[in-house]
Design a protein that fits this description.
single chain, mainly alpha, two-stranded antiparallel ribbon, 5 helices
């Protein structure tokens, strides 16, 4: 029911939430020696989910290690500017997707009330 009501937007919101978690993990581990920053290729994960792949498997397949522009001496690949940019971009997408879903819920609610 939810998938037919929200279409791809419900899946997108779920994936964006997972990506936010991964990016915040990167930021939290910016000082951890040897930590390898990762990110989810959102387009690849969304495509995999749209083709019927389960959430965990789609995320696993779409998760990539970041290649740093300037690697640190301790092996940590977190670059704060990259992480902040990815976080901001994903947060905007999350908000837009959430707004679309909210609008859809309001439309259905109005239809049920007969407005």
């Amino acid at each position: 029911m939810a998938e037919s009501l929200f279409g791809i937007h419900g899946i997108a919101l779920e994936l964006r939430s997972q990506r936010l978690g991964l990016i915040t993990s990167n930021i939290a581990n910016a000082g951890t020696p040897g930590y390898k920053a990762r990110d989810i290729d959102f387009a690849a994960a969304l495509k995999a989910r749209s083709e019927g792949l389960g959430k965990e498997r789609a995320i696993e397949q779409a998760t990539r290690y970041r290649v740093p522009v300037m690697p640190s001496l301790d092996g940590n690949t977190v670059e704060m500017a990259t992480e902040q940019t990815a976080f901001a971009e994903n947060a905007v997408g999350y908000t837009a997707t959430l707004s679309f879903i909210r609008g859809r819920v309001e439309t259905v609610t109005r239809a049920l009330k007969g407005d």
